[in-house]
Amino acid sequence: xxxxxxxxxxxxxxxSRTMGPxxxxxxxxxxxxxxxxxxxxxxxxxxxxxxxxxxxxxxxDEDLWPQVRLHAWKxxxxxxxxxxxxWHATRSxxxxxxxxxxxxxxxxxxxxxxxxxxxxxxTAYGGIANYLIGGGRILRAVPEDLVPxxxxxxxxxxxISIEVAQATAGDPFDPRDIALCHxxxxxxxxxxxxxxxxxxxxxxxxxxxxxxxxxxDTAQGRRQxxxxxxxxxxxxxxxxxxxxxxxxxxxxxxxxxxxxxxxxPGTEDLFPPGTPPIPWDDDGPVHRLTGAAALEYAKRxxxxxxLGLQRTQRALGAHLGEHRNPTAPPASPS
Length: 334
Hints:
- Strand 13 and strand 14 form a beta hairpin.
- The chain folds into 2 domains: 4-243, Lysozyme-like; 247-322, no CATH class.
- By secondary structure, it is of the alpha/beta class.
- The protein is built from 8 helices and 20 strands.
């Protein structure tokens, strides 16, 4: 698999990082099932985890744990392992709500003493997750070495639960939040050693780990008719991973150490903006195509290393072939 990168800052367009890839092609219930690789991320606000010895930490914006810890029914000390991530969507059901509003609402609910369900046997639990992402912000509610008493039932004992702001199932996710999902997933995968891959299903015995799974693809989620985070999440999650191809990989995989080429009509999108096309019968200046040029080309055209080495090379070759000298004889097959 190849890996991906993007440049940026606090916003999606400006956050700086290197990102693990997305998906090998295998069909799953909600789209592709595959692997995302891992690498390093930027730092923000508060530590994302307070466990020592796991390398660099990304940073979070808010820590709700001092409030949540007062409500003993919302968490438990029964962490067995961390084999992956369970993705959720907040889903208030209120049309028109922004991701920031969903974030605030979920934050208040996580902290509320009214977030409590009392079972017939006297056991109480609260609906909560380890992390909440919304409106371009990350909040920690329950430390990673503790288990939310309820986000996905039995699966919570072996995975980190992350809620992502989405008012209704039809709403798109905030692109900033999808970028932060990748950032946090990268951090967790590196720390706990699970692969960046989507899991098609985790059963009641927790068979199916390691990797990343949607609540809708857990035994508990299907039993209760859960649909989150849903196809919109996975589509945007995949697109964001593809957008983040690394310059090094593009340099190595797409153009090797760089290639010299003349800009011909129809191939302008492979060259830096403003490069004039030279007629096929004329000589022209040779430009060095670099990884940076290839990255810009990939962004503009949607060709990405998610296609894999051979498919990417074929796509680029086909693009150039479509715009070769119309008077030249066809190339002999190799």
